[in-house]
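ok trying again, last paste got cut off:
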Amino acid sequence: MSLEPIDAESALELYLTDRATELSEASLKSHEYQLKHFIRWCDEQEIENLNSLGGRDLQRFRLWRREDGDLNKVSERSQMNTFRVFIRWLESMDGVEQDLSQKVMSPSLTPDENARDVMLDSDRAPAVLAHLEKYEYATVPHVAISLMWHTMMRVGGVHALDVDDYSPDDQCVEVQHRPDTGTPIKNQSKGERLVALSDQVCDLLDDWLSTQRPDVTDEYGRTPLLASRQGRTKKSTLRSYVYRWTRPCVYDDECPHDRNPDECEAMTRDSASRCPSSVSPHAIRRGSITHSLNNNMPDKVVSDRANVSQRVLDKHYDRRTDREKMEQRREYLDNI
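nice, full thing came through this time. structure:
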């Protein structure tokens, strides 16, 4: 095979142009953000032609990116998966040697690491929500996942909401502990709170209530906010929606795990959790909390909004890297 010379910057530009018709705008921006680090690395290494890339170069880039970005295993795995897709595209363009993408390595996660660290990060969340807004607007999955991401609520909190708990005038929802009528919440009465909503989320809830929500009550005579014709949507159903719609092949049309869709065990509704990249509702909560902290929302505000103590927030939810925390503190230096 005869390779055609191409530099990294031109390759990325062509890649993004080619994928623009396949990916959502949010996904495209996510790919661009992650792959721009490869451009920086090529500049540092004075690599002007990608034809010469080999397996050792890919490993050097991986190690450089890990140190440069202070990446944990989950973030490194996500970025290397995107990088593998890019290299596979380059193969199809005769820009690199065939099968080079198979030499892109990413870290393996133990079950314990995966359970503790996995989250729907701020790169993926907009892509998931953009897909739902375009193809599943104002459906239960769209409303549920939007609420989880924008409010940091646990799945039990979202499940417990009634129509009357939503105030369009005050733009908020009230989370209440009602164990006697089937909807206890974690932390019980201490978990009760008012949660402010954005204009966008209120518009979504208004459209759901006016056009999509079935006129039903649950077995206790309450009017659940999230409902089907059978009554209040079950927590297990909400979890299954999250697993289903966070599979990359659903919102990105690309499998980062090189799986054949016709043979993938995670393609059916009931087996979506078997996809290595699908996440649970708790991962949405963790990702939303980290996203808010990264965007300089004060720890106290996040703690109150998410109904989590500062100690638990630091230990289990705050996934900012040491570098990210340092850069945020740097912003206050001019005031000293």
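cool. The two ends are 61 Å apart (CA to CA). The chain has two domains: 8-109, 125-274.
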